């Protein structure tokens, strides 16, 4: 491993080039993080030392850096050579990390073929709809920038009828390279359908709930990251940015609540956390937001609970992300207690770490904050397997997919069980839950 000294910029280009060439020979080969960089330049992960607090992590994020992983006194980021040099110039100490391919050992690097492609995921949805017509229906709710369908899948007993039941939304793949989340959507769909009528808990839940799955919020980014033959470590969507040669908006900084308010996103189009030109400027964000707004019937939002699946870190997160405060406008002490109790209950079932989002670092314009503050939906983020880059980072090997999607079975059912009134998780049913 090569360490980039604080405040120095010596031999960085040669070191990164050598490491990049090593990466491109393995299954996790990656391309440049935005279109300004030469096609041959690779991105890779670095450990950034002496970043031990939420304030320090937020300061790093405010440089336009996307933080992949939080460690006890450091973080892991993905960067190209130019961004690594900029951080070194700012005084950060970077250590280039080896990939599973480079270091060998028991973790086998993933290949793009380990995961369903966008087309294969849609085919799996169609198969489920054909096999379980009384339980599953799907609809195209809009298109991505490049014209790909964004599909919402409904799972419920008596699926053809819009019943007056609590609705739960699961979203996946806002960030292009997080392919394990699409596998999570397909696992949930498969488990709910195959176990209905057999598993008493699932049967009771689907008799009294309506479940919505959006397997890929960012299909253009998924296709770009996965279907060239090697992974590109692409995060954003594929929308061009006016006046810039850089491509893409970070969809999870593009939501219309406290957008760009607090240094939790970047205004630079080349940044991994670029928030877009305006709230909901990403067409994919607008498609999902319009779908959610459309679930308000008679002025009452039918969706009561939500999980946005990401990788990686094994975390359960809840609002707010834009402030360190436990309570803020629209988030009372009782609301915070319900978030913490329900988030902890889900984490108890899957072994993840539960915490408020801003305990990591400040983010703004996120789906969780918008869904709660604007729509009153108890919204969580799950950062899935692994805990660290050592387990494969954004690209864990295919042989862990079944284990790591199934690991969230009980957490998903827990959220469904509390969808009628999340405050029950905190013992507040007397104040908030109808008899």
UniProtKB/TrEMBL annotation:
The keyword Protease applies. The active site is at 383 (proton donor/acceptor). It catalyses: Releases a C-terminal residue, which may be hydrophobic or positively charged. Its cofactor is Zn(2+). GO terms for molecular function: metallocarboxypeptidase activity; zinc ion binding. It is an enzyme of class 3 (hydrolase). Carboxypeptidase that possesses the specificities of both mammalian Cpase A and B. Thus shows broad substrate specificity, being able to cleave Cbz-Gly-Leu, Cbz-Gly-Val, Cbz-Gly-Phe, Cbz-Gly-Lys and Bz-Gly-Arg in vitro. Belongs to the peptidase M14 family. This is Zinc carboxypeptidase. It comes from Streptomyces radicis.
């Amino acid at each position: 491993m090569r360490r980039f000294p604080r405040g120095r910029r010596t031999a960085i280009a040669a070191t990164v080039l050598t490491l990049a060439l090593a990466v491109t020979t393995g299954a996790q080969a990656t391309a440049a993080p935005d279109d300004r960089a030469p096609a041959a330049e690779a991105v890779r992960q670095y450990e950034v030392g002496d970043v031990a607090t939420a304030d320090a992590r937020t300061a790093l994020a405010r440089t336009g850096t996307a933080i992949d992983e939080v460690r006890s006194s450091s973080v892991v980021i993905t960067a190209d050579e130019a961004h690594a040099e900029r951080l070194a110039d700012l005084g950060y100490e970077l250590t280039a990390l080896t990939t599973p391919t480079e270091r060998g050992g028991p973790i086998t690097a993933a290949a793009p073929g380990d995961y369903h492609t966008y087309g294969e995921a849609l085919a799996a949805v169609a198969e489920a709809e054909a096999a379980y017509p009384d339980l599953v229906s799907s609809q195209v709710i809009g298109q991505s920038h490049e014209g790909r369908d964004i599909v919402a899948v409904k799972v419920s007993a008596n699926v053809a009828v819009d019943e007056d039941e609590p609705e739960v939304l699961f979203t996946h793949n806002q960030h292009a390279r997080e392919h394990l989340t699409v596998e999570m959507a397909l696992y949930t769909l498969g488990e709910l359908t195959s176990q209905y009528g057999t598993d008493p808990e699932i049967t009771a839940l689907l008799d009294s709930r309506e479940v919505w799955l959006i397997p890929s919020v960012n299909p253009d980014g998924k296709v770009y990251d996965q279907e060239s033959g090697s992974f590109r470590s692409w995060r954003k969507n594929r929308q061009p940015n006016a006046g810039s040669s850089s491509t893409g908006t970070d969809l999870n900084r593009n939501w219309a609540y406290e957008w760009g308010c607090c240094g939790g996103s970047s205004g630079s189009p080349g940044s991994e956390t670029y928030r877009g030109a305006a709230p909901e400027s990403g067409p994919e964000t607008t498609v999902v937001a319009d779908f959610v707004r459309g679930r308000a019937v008679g002025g009452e939002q039918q969706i009561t609970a939500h999980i946005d699946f990401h990788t990686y870190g094994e975390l359960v997160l809840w609002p707010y992300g834009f402030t360190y405060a436990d309570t803020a406008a629209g988030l009372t002490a009782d609301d915070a207690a319900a978030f913490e109790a329900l988030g902890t209950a889900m984490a108890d079932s899957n072994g993840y770490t539960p915490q408020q989002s801003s305990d990591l670092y400040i983010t703004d314009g996120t789906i969780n904050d918008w869904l709660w503050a604007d729509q009153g939906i108890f919204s969580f983020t799950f950062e899935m397997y692994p805990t660290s880059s050592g387990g494969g980072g954004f690209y864990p090997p295919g042989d862990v997919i079944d284990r790591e999607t199934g690991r969230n079975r009980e957490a998903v059912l827990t959220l469904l069980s509390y969808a009628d009134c999340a405050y029950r998780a905190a013992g507040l049913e007397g104040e908030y839950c109808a008899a």
